[in-house]
Amino acid sequence: MRVKLVAGNWKMHGNLVANRALLQASISALSSLDAAKFAVCVPYPYLSQARELLNGSNISWGAQDLCQFESGAYTGAVSASMLTDFGCRYVIVGHSERRSVFGDTNETVALKYAAALKAGLSPILCVGETLAEREAGAAEAIVGAQLDAVLVLARSGAQSLARAVIAYEPVWAIGTGKTATPDQAQAMHAAIRRRIASQDQGIAGRVNVLYGGSVKAGNAGELFAMPDIDGGLIGGASLVAEEFIAICRAANQVSAKVQA
Ligand code: PGA
Predict the structure, then answer these.
(1) Which of 15, 33, 123, 170 could form a disulfide with 252 if both were Cys (CB 3.0 to 4.6 A apart)?
(2) Which residues contact 122 (CB under 8 A, 6 or more apart)?
(3) Cα 252 to Cα 242: distance, rounded to the nearest angstrom
(4) pLDDT tens readout for residues 36-81
């Protein structure tokens, strides 16, 4: 049985004062929810603050990217072991903003994914098609290729997904206010699971596949109710305490129902 996971992706937002208020509100509101899992992926400078505030709570923390190399002369880069030093459980890899703005290729994403796993982190692997790709009927092929790149290129194989999370984030839905409909998202999630099942049926049934792209309090419940949507990766709405908390409650409620 899969437990729903809600992960906030703060992107390049926040400051010490605002983060504290957001995290404290989340800690107290989520403390009684025990049917789902929660996490926030914060900018590197705030990992120490996240650890200090979230330690002992039911909210995990993580980063939004990492370097594929273990150490060395890589100015500006942050390694997997630095993230584990700060108690990170998760790290996002292959977010579409990293791919489009910073030039991460399928190959770099695969190496980052492998580096995260080697250090004991749970990578949240983002995949998703652009609007042009969807309109050309290529969405499934694109997402399949992004997935294969990691499973095959990094020679990680489907078994590596035992500790990983997949996030399907259609690029056209990120930060645009346009959400995939529950049916559109469900169809892609099922396709992702089928692709993994062709390598490993057991892992396909266990891996968490999150949806991301303009998830809000108002649409979270119907998305999370779909059989193959195991929670969400939340950008904009994760910066607003009431929104984030409401999304986490929605995941907890659906999870509790499934577990009953
Ligand atoms: P959004 O971002 O919720 O603001 O659309 C999601 C993401 O990029 O992870």
Answers:
(1) 33
(2) 62, 89, 90, 91, 116, 163, 164, 165
(3) 15
(4) 999 999 999 999 999 999 999 999 999 999 999 999 999 999 999 9
Question: How many CB atoms within 10 Å of residue 183?
Answer: 9
Cα separation of 72 and 70, whole Å? 7
Of the chain, the percentage scoring pLDDT greater than 90 comes to 89
C-alpha 178 – ligand 1 centre gap (Å) = 11
Pocket of ligand 1 (CB under 6 A): 9, 169, 174-175, 212-215, 233-237
Tokens representing 202 are: 């057991």
Run of H or E residues at 222: helix 217-224
Pocket test for ligand 1, best of 214, 216, 243, 247 (most atoms within 8 A of CB): 214
Q: Hey, what are 94's tokens?
A: 């292959």
**Which residue has the least CA distance to atom 3 on ligand 1?**
235
* pLDDT tens-digit series, residues 108-122: 999 999 999 999 999
- 182-215 pLDDT, tens per residue? 999 999 999 999 999 998 999 999 999 999 999 9
Q: What is the pLDDT of residue 176?
A: 87
- The residue count of the chain comes to 260
Centre of ligand 1 from the C-alpha of residue 182, in Å: 16
Virtual torsion, Cα 136, 139, 143, 144, nearest 10 deg: -90
| Euclidean distance between CA atoms 146 and 95, whole angstroms | 11
The answer to whether residue 257 scores a pLDDT higher than 80 is: yes
